[in-house]
Specification:
Length: 176
Amino acid sequence: MGATGEQLGVMKLSEALRHADSMGLDLVEVAPTANPPVCKIVAIGKFRYDLSKQEKDRKSSGTRLKEIKFRVNIDDHDYLTKIRHAEEFLDKGNKVRVQLQFRGREMAHQEFGMQLMDKVKRDLAGMSQVEMEAKLAGRNVTMTLSPLPANRRKRRFALSPDEAPVNGSNEPAEIP
């Protein structure tokens, strides 16, 4: 393959090296197991850079674990904001760890915490499946959600265009 991407056809190694040298570029073997082996005429520095970029993109596409923290007495607006963030994370293919923290005397009413975790599970059911059920560990209840396949995800809490944040704030835009 030539420097501009066109096919040069099958040629002898010495002829290919001469052709690459006349262009001031390098001959790089890209498919050594093919019969005959496939080579490219490119600048080796640019070729290595492109390979490293492709590898970096491949590594970053893996799923990551995001965490959302709740408290038992969370306000409705704060709850919706956190659920929207969880939906965004799930929509991007990330797993979400939902953590609920008890403080002080809140430990006496753990049933309220479990009710909140059930509500989170129900609200995110269109986007995720439960990977690890909610369980108490010390003063925290944790649950892990993994995203559904992209074709089965249905967002419930996405902001409508007229509610979109202005200048990075979480408040809806004011319409004069």
